[in-house]
Amino acid sequence: MSNRTKNILVPVIAVLLGILVGTIIMVASGYDAAAGYTALWNGAFGDVYFTGEVIRQVTPYILAGLAVAFAFRTGLFNIGVEGQLIVGWLAAVWVGVSFDLPKVIHLPLAILAAAAAGALWAFIPGYLKAKFRVHEVIVTIMMNYVALHVTNNVIRTVLSEGKERSENIADTASLRSPFFEGLTEYSRLHWGIFIAVICAILMWFILEKTTKGFELRAVGFNEHASQYAGMNVKNNIILSMVISGTFAGLAGAMEGLGTFGYTAIKSGFTGVGFDGIAVALLGGNTAIGVVLAAFLFGSLKVGALNMPLEAGIPNELVDIIIALIIFFVASSYIIRWFIQRMSKKGVK
Amino acid sequence: MEYVIEMLNIRKEFSGFVANDNITLQVKKGEIHALLGENGAGKSTLMNVLFGLYQPEQGEIKVKGKPVNITNPNIANDLGIGMVHQHFMLVDTFSVTENIILGMETTKGGVIDIRTAEEEVRKISERYGLAVDPQAKISDISVGMQQRVEILKTLYRGAEILIFDEPTAVLTPQEIKELIQILRTLIKEGKSIILITHKLKEIMEVCDRVTVIRKGKGIGTVNVSETNPNELASLMVGRDVVFTTDKSEANPAGDVLKIKGLAVKDSRGVQAVRGLDLSVRAGEIVGIAGVDGNGQTELIEAITGLRKAESGSVKIKGKEILNLTPRKITESGLAHIPQDRHKHGLVLNYPIGENMVLQTYYKSPFSKSGVMNFKNIYDKARKLIKEYDVRTPNEFTPARALSGGNQQKAIIGREVDRDPEILIAAQPTRGLDVGAIEFIHKRLIEQRDKGKAVLLISFELDEIMNVSDRIAVIYEGEIVAIVNPKETTEQELGLLMAGSKRKEAGEETNV
Ligand SMILES: Nc1ncnc2c1ncn2[C@@H]1O[C@H](COP(=O)(O)OP(=O)(O)OP(=O)(O)O)[C@@H](O)[C@H]1O
Ligand SMILES: [Mg+2]
């Protein structure tokens, strides 16, 4: 079997397995599986409103998935997408509420602020890895908590006076699209999906077509050979994290400028950044794969909301089914990843 | 029951490319059986089939007369087959014993019983004269020792038949002598051995019979006592091979590489190169002879920018390059055939074609304003693959899938083709077949005759004597003598390399 067919087959089988085990669980706990899945489908595609919501949900998933995938392809494991997303969200809203500018300046500025914040948040683990060989997984996990608490504090003290949420952003900084809203019976679908798709194309282009991508991937595969070839290993490690963080920050902008239009104190993580890991794995860490996987995840997430309503299946069970799909996908890829890591280290 | 191993009419394909075509190999009990063939002939592939790493498309394998189906290495282990691979498979951060028991740990109440294992390893090590410290960490021991750990690994698993894939390619001459001793001990203890090597001398010295394969096809099996190196070489290549390289007198001109007072520390912080002086002139090949571990590696790494030097000066055509980045040094006209092709030479996951532009990808015509031009890259790769006879299914094959010797040829092609002012060749012919060695030596001499400088580092005195115009002997991080290869003998070199008193006469001969 060629690698290509394997890469397509593995996620498809994983999804089917997830659905199968989900069925068994539903039946075993006395629910009608057929009705459950029908409700899931209807909840995602039964109505243009739902479809609009699916695409809205897909948008940050694509960007979070790209962030994880980009790092992964260059030999880094960015677990910090969640934190980079949160600071991106905050930065976007901050710019969105603080300035009074024409839209052509204000919106791009807010988006750029989110990208820069995400990039900065990823720069720190990148720098520590490049300079002091600190493993990026540990630092990025810690940075997630730092992001959560710092942003909460900023929201409470700077963006509001001790309140739970910020003001709404100015219209000039908003990604909301009355046109899409009209088209989808007032779903929250916004312009961000274009940004996400452009970023997917960008990631593909950078990795596959540019000399930088050639360097970044080479460093991920073999640092010694990259150094021998005259590439700057440290800078490339940092750059890889920064690009990854940029995508993550943009995912935050989608939430701040598109879906919500404000930011609020969070008691826990949004989960989008962590789902991004599953999206990247399911998508085989390629741009097109990430877009498709994000689509699947968005559909499940939004469609699942309908399962309790239409089929009386409890939310918890829905979460279990989604988790199962992720489990099957992730386990196959994690096994592959481990084999690759081990053989790389082992061969002397 | 005459044969311990019989591989009959084996065929192995890689997506249409036939690596083994109807090959038969029969090994008798208690013999050392050589497997000989050019780079890419299919030797490693055949052994990987025997070891259960590859499944043959066709053919039969018998162990001690019984037909077997070896679908994975565990089955090979159970059948008493052990393999010491061309590229070692050890976990660097583990101890010797941990590596050996990996995958078959003995436990006591669910906890790994490392004490008993260490004792066992020590016993086996003593029995076969391997002198391995069971507690040493892999990253702290020499390549030769690592190889012994691989041998121990197979013996620990109860191997009766041991496969050695080019074991001597990574060893120093002294280590080779010791390995040969070990092979003899193994035979005495009732083992059978299959030995892959390109060194005809070794075959003549230790082997009983030799099976020759050429381009994936079996050519035949001969008794070593009834053959000679020349016949073996021509059987293998399909034409006559000359062993010594003809070359005209060197016409050296001005200094290209000038090293003064170079001091470098090794990774542990020990002074490895101590105030070394050396110059290589345009139009000459300088060979560095020395026992491994006398600062050669650190010297090369400092010249090429892979390691920071403490002090001193390294100039290329008068321009100081000490402690510049590898990129700047490369652009000053230096090319480097690295000692460790897997660590430095190649990005194994990249196609061999993209490895051909590893240092030049950012330049025209391989890219333009930061965008790669893959058409030009692969055109170039095809040209180099043809010119340097790199045997690969095509230019898109990952470098990992090339045979060891062909990986080496690809690197040499890439480096020589850049037409550098100074070419640093560290063990350039390691793992190459005699035909390829002849070819590479010619290219080095050609480079010299074009008026370029070549610095050759090799542990093989034959190679140093044959190819160099001047020989610099390195001992404890210093050049202790410069001798003319025509006026010296291997004995004299050997003494100098062992540090026997600096040769005052060295100053007279051609500095
Ligand atoms: N996994 C693989 N996929 C594709 N081609 C392969 C693979 N492994 C080996 N080959 C090809 O099969 C041929 C034989 O390779 P093999 O490694 O057996 O050669 P070899 O005789 O051991 O050579 P060397 O002396 O250089 O080590 C080579 O041309 C190689 O490119
Ligand atoms: Mg081989």
From TrEMBL, chain A:
What does the record say about its membrane topology?
Multi-pass membrane protein
Provide a Gene Ontology MF annotation, just one.
transmembrane transporter activity
Xref: InterPro entries: ABC_transp_permease
Q: Which keywords has UniProt assigned to this entry? A: Cell membrane, Membrane, Sugar transport, Transmembrane, Transmembrane helix, Transport
Give the stretches traversing the membrane. Answer: 12-34, 54-72, 79-99, 105-124, 189-207, 237-265, 277-300, 320-339
**From what superkingdom does this record's organism come?**
Bacteria
Where found?
A: Cell membrane
The record's GO CC annotations read: plasma membrane
Its chief place of residence is: membrane
PANTHER family xref list: ABC TRANSPORTER, PERMEASE PROTEIN, GUANOSINE ABC TRANSPORTER PERMEASE PROTEIN NUPP
Name by which UniProt lists this protein? Simple sugar transport system permease protein
Q: Which organism is it from?
A: Mesobacillus foraminis
UniProtKB/TrEMBL annotation, chain B:
* InterPro entries assigned: AAA+_ATPase, ABC_carbohydrate_import_ATPase, ABC_transporter-like_ATP-bd, ABC_transporter-like_CS, P-loop_NTPase
Localization (cell): Cell membrane
Q: Which GO terms describe its cellular component?
A: plasma membrane
Q: Which UniProt keywords apply?
A: ATP-binding, Cell membrane, Membrane, Nucleotide-binding, Repeat, Sugar transport, Translocase, Transport
Listed GO molecular functions? ATP binding; ATP hydrolysis activity
Q: In the UniProt record, does the keyword Cell inner membrane occur? A: no
As for membrane topology, the entry says: Peripheral membrane protein
Q: Which Pfam families match?
A: ABC_tran
The family annotation for this protein states: Belongs to the ABC transporter superfamily.
This protein is called Simple sugar transport system ATP-binding protein
